[in-house]
Amino acid sequence: MALPDQPQPELPKRPLKLCVLKFGSSVLFTPDDYARAAHEIYRHVRAGEKVVAVVSALDGETDALFGVGNDVGQGCSDALLARLVRCGELKSAALMGLALERSGIPSAVLDPHEMGLRAEGEALDANLTGLDAGRVLARFGAVDVIVAPGFFGDGADGPVTLGRGGTDLTAVEFAHWLGADRVRLIKDVDGVYTDDPAKVANAKRLDQLDYDEAAKVSRGLVQDKAITRAKEQSVVIEVAALGRPYATRIAAVEKRAGGGVAAKPLKVAVLGHGAVGAGVCAHLLAHPGRFSLNPVLVRDPDQHRVGAPVALQFTADPAEALAGDPDIVVETIGGTGLARSLSQSVLREGAHLVTANKAVMALDFDRLHQLAQENGRSLRYSATIGGGVPILEIVDLLAAEDTLLSVEGVLNGTCNFVLGQLGLGVPLAEAVAEAQRLGFAEADPSADIDGYDAADKLAILVRHAFGVALHPDQISRESLSDLSADRIAAVNEQGLVFKQVARCATTHDGRVEAKVEIQALAPDHPLAGLVNEGNGALLNLPGGQLGVFGKGAGRWPTAEAVFADIMDIQRDTVLPAKAASHMPENPLSHIRRMSTRTVA
């Protein structure tokens, strides 16, 4: 989770958590499916894992390439066909990279020749023989996700393919060579069944089975060569569907059947339809089997109906938006007026609450947590800091296993953009206007410019990092408006970079100090490379420093984090007991019990 193209800080010595995810053609039907795949990847990233995403071509594309190749070549060599049909995977990997970039997830797309991925054998049925693991792992210093095309590798005389289902084999070999915890094959079914569930009504899903049994009953669901190699290398395979908290585990284990897992769609009420709310609604509408959507609360329903999906309804009446006892309420209104009162009332009425409202969370942290606990409901707010950058999740992971000394970060995308413009000589008013035009700033940007937004985020961060109750008013702030023309000119002349830095740290006597200030940083400082809506944090530990970076503002990165919270709640309702899940525990699923103390 480090920043690309910058000198990297020394990292703490801890094992790299790595998983390999494989997305086959059965879940990549159209380009729209890459957004769903990106969310599956983000789910693992925010749980503290690095991810290798191995992708197949879009559904039907490989067959189409074989068809056109045979039509044009009429008996051409297998070597030329292999060179052609691999293009489906190359295209798919690039599309996955684009989807991840839109969601603000730091990633790199690597082709086989960039990874030293070698293969031997027949041009259309080869086997992988090697990978430059050091080169691949080194890229994780700058990104959270590496996207790789499956199905082919580099042979001695050019590209060769791995046979039908060859992306399964690619994923298994990556897991072995990179030392991943497991390989998770994402399919259009939620596991391996005793019989084909599409044909046999009473087919039973298996929780786990050994490699030999998997080869017998998977009926091509997992490539035979992939199962054989997994057995030889003791690679654990999981077979799962998108978004599911459970999987069939293929390993050196005894066969065990699993119970049927079914759940009715959860009723969701979305409050607000701005940039983030609209993004969340788009995610919800893409999963009709999991969620039903109440009319969305807005001020002017007629205005929001223009250009909106037909399935989306709007209302100006909070009672209508919250009708029918919704299971989950998503608050994206912002501010501390209506949003504050509704946040408390929905928890009191027994709904789960997901919010991106950092001001409300900073002011009512204890009260909202108390209401959630009293009513047995979840309170999720990962998007309040960093948008799609999982700063809170990583802070929780580190604080649970180590002693955090300090956290410093760029937490406001609006200020980051405006300060960048000031560095180019643009006057403050013009820089703010441009930020508003690009969607980086609200109509009233004073909360951002004057540091209130960063102070709210810092108050929440202090809770998670140090367990201290700190009111935002106790955090000193410096406003961009305080920057004089002389100071700006001097910093620009020295080649330094202005950043709004939020910092919290423990003192020698056990107190916590927190402040938001405008700092002039050297160009090689890890925070200096953040541009536009970029957010990032440096987490300082006794053993070193860890950086977490990405897009912290905008519709899709923030909506990604909000929807991840929604999906966590949905998974908990499907499978409350996580015994059958092999996903690492999400740190925000159960906020660690903090010994909270108040700063006077």
TrEMBL record:
Keyword check for NAD: no
GO biological-process terms attached to the record: methionine biosynthetic process; threonine biosynthetic process
Gene3D superfamilies (UniProt xref): Acetylglutamate kinase-like, Dihydrodipicolinate Reductase, domain 2, NAD(P)-binding Rossmann-like Domain
Its EC number(s): 1.1.1.3
Domain Aspartate/homoserine dehydrogenase NAD-binding: 272-381
CDD domains xref list: AAK_AK
InterPro entries recorded: AceGlu_kinase-like_sf, Asp/Glu/Uridylate_kinase, Asp/hSer_DH_NAD-bd, HDH_cat, HDH_CS, NAD(P)-bd_dom_sf
Record keywords, A-Z: Amino-acid biosynthesis, Methionine biosynthesis, Oxidoreductase, Threonine biosynthesis
Domain Aspartate/glutamate/uridylate kinase: 17-221
UniProt domain Homoserine dehydrogenase catalytic: residue ranges: 390-567
NCBIfam families to which the protein is assigned, alphabetical: PRK06349.1
Family classification: Belongs to the homoserine dehydrogenase family.
Name this polypeptide is given: Homoserine dehydrogenase
